[in-house]
Amino acid sequence: MLALVVHEPGRIEVTQVPEPTPGPGEVVVKVAACGICGTDLHIVDGDYHAEYPAIPGHEMAGTIVNAGEAQGLAAGDRVAVNPNIYCHACRMCRRGMPHLCESATAVGVTRPGGFAELCAMPAQQCLPLPEGVSFRNGALMEPLSCCLHGLAVLAPRPGDRVAILGAGTVGLMMTQLVRLHGGAPIVVSDPDAGKRALAERLGADATVDPAAADPREAIFDALGGRADFVLEAAGLPQTAALALELVGPGGRVLQFGVCPEGTEVPMRPRQLFRDEITIAGAYTNPFTDDRALALLANGRIDTKPLVSDEFALADAEQALARAREADSFKVQVRPGG
Ligand SMILES: [Zn+2]
Ligand SMILES: [Zn+2]
Question: Is the pTM of this model over 0.85?
Answer without folding.
Answer: yes
